[in-house]
Design brief:
DNA-binding; homodimer; 6-stranded mixed sheet; 339 residues; alpha/beta; elongated; 6-stranded parallel sheet; 12 helices; 43% helix
DNA sequence: TACGGTAAGGAAAATCTTTTCCCATTGACC
DNA sequence: GGTCAATGGGAAAAGATTTTCCTTACCGTA
């Protein structure tokens, strides 16, 4: 079939453990022990083997090693996000933690299609990954990816609807609380809420969190929350609407940064000076959006990378037999810019 | 060590090929042949084995298979982009093509740090990936990731500085040509250029492409290209500047969508009506930015997914011994919105 | 001097599947 | 009826490493 690419003319066989053994004048078992720090060997022998291995540029074939170990030191990450806004930081965090455990991740893009997802799941199991992270894109609970899987699974960002699964989520109510605390601290008292569609759990949670936090400060919300879409256009429109009915508003908590950006534009175009007259806080800390807004947005960072890190840590622990089922909440933090 | 999680009480050993063989009443070799469609077997036998395998839920252990095959059916993707704007679509395309070849990708985030990159490279080689895709974030040629690697490498988006390597890049000049053609077709004649820093190859290439394309239409550029940053703020600023010196401009080709968005804002705020008085074209087709602009941006899509797909295809071919070194250019296409 | 203990390292089993012979059986043709 | 060919399937090697015993040699003590 494939006519041997690469190597000049064939004979350059891979260097295996036997070559190292020959060079060091020991048996293969001894090489293995020397290189893995196991068994009882003289230091001198260990050093000699290591030297031989280095000279030959030996690296053990992981396939053989995995065969013995019965595992692959590999995990699968299935994202529903097409590597989008939320999946990316989560993945980055996960990669960090995994690397610390000498693991590496297969990436699969589910594209929000259950069929694709199942297909990827099958492929991952076929390759005998040691565990799976399912990274979502919305905070609404999702149906578990499978029942009785032979490997542990951790759900990141979008929790599993089965509370017996292990999920790592953002602190939605806490985000609202952080926003309110900032607004109150900067002297705002008449605080409104413009957010995404009511069909999204995050919109509801953040709205509920806002209500709680305002109550804790003995403040009344300004009007009902404005539920709409996660878009700039909605932000602009709602801001104009808000001014029409509640002229005296002096703070707006927005469901995300994109909306917040629309809100700042809408307010500015209505002649409001920011941040003097009205303070605006978003959610997401999406650099591109938050920094390009005028003024740059103060916003709540949901700690997505931390969610990724934590997910991977929990997965590693589960792989080691110490599963910690339940919902794990990762706190966010406020990023203060000018708005 | 790890006290056996999962399975109820220990004895449920993995089902292996021997179990299937026993159940089907044949030898293990026959099972292998039946399941892989190799060898000469009666259809009846094949069916019986398959049935047994299904009933037992048998899937071959890939480690054992890899050991024999001498390969892993796995590739590594090293991105320098932190899975950002450019890496994502490239990866998605690559995943598509790889899946078609029954391959799967390890993802490594280089974070633009050569040390990290080398570390990842080492990890990938240790795991004996069959090939590597290096996905860049800028179109400037980059230094090769390594010399004399034991596996083929394809550079995606950011080409290797070594022309003997295999690189897949976007058509930067073609992008400018597409933009000019659209502007000219919509009646624009006084076309200016606002773009990113001159230190970026893409800014230069696009500027050069613009000059060529204008010349082809017997048009003079309006002023020198405005080189600056890839930001909205620069776009706004440069637009104002442009109007001051070239009031009669009726078209602007922007180096990317973010700049273009700034330009639309700048022009609008200067009282220009869009797209009536001035047509604006961006580059990137970054949905979030292009669609949120007022008016939504007409822009050149560089075909990043296609770059990913093509890269993976070339890598698969190289793995099969048919390397195609050189620079492979993937054409972009115009996405017409309202601007 | 002989025996027990320990340290160092070797031999071989184990891991699971694929693939290469090789053998046996059956059918066909002379 | 006998021989040859083809077809179906089995046995065993191969693949690279880890790990579990074992062996050997050396030292100290009785």
């Amino acid at each position: 079939m494939t006519d041997e690419p690469g190597s000049p003319a064939g004979t350059a066989r891979r260097v295996g453990i036997v070559d190292v053994a020959a060079r060091a004048g020991v048996s293969v078992g001894t090489v293995s022990k020397a290189l893995n720090g196991s068994g009882r060997l003289r230091d001198e022998t260990r050093a000699r083997v290591r030297a031989a291995a280095d000279e030959l540029g030996f690296t053990p074939l992981s396939a053989a090693r995995n065969l013995l170990a019965g595992r692959t030191f590999t995990v699968g990450v299935i994202t529903t996000d097409s590597y989008g806004r939320f999946g990316i930081p989560v993945m980055r965090g996960a990669e960090d933690s995994l690397a610390a455990g000498e693991m590496i991740a297969f990436l699969c893009d589910g594209r929000d299609d259950p069929l694709r997802e199942q297909h990827h799941l099958g492929k991952l199991l076929e390759r005998r990954v040691d565990g799976i992270i399912v990274a979502g894109r919305r905070t609404d609970p999702r149906r578990p990816i499978g029942a009785d899987l032979p490997v542990p699974v951790v759900y990141a960002f979008a929790p599993s609807s089965d509370p017996a699964d292990c999920s790592v989520v953002s602190d939605e109510r806490g985000a609202a609380r952080l926003a309110v605390e900032h607004l109150v601290k900067t002297g705002r008292r008449r605080i409104a809420h413009i957010t995404g569609p009511q069909s999204h759990a995050s919109a509801n949670e953040r709205a509920a969190g806002l209500a709680e936090a305002l109550a804790a400060h003995d403040l009344e919300p300004v009007g009902e929350p404005y539920f709409g879409g996660w878009t700039e256009a909605w932000g602009r429109f709602a801001a104009a609407q808000l001014l029409r009915t509640h002229e005296d508003v002096d703070g707006v908590f927005c469901g995300n940064d994109v909306i917040a950006r629309g809100v700042t534009d809408g307010l500015r175009e209505a002649g409001i000076s920011l941040p003097t007259q009205v303070g605006v806080v978003g959610v997401d800390n999406w650099g591109l959006v938050a920094e390009a807004a005028r003024p740059p947005l103060t916003t709540v960072d949901l700690g997505l990378e931390e969610i990724g890190r934590r997910s991977a840590e929990l997965l590693l622990e589960a792989i080691n037999g110490h599963a910690q089922p339940g919902i794990h909440v990762v706190p966010g933090h406020l990023v203060v810019r000018e708005s």
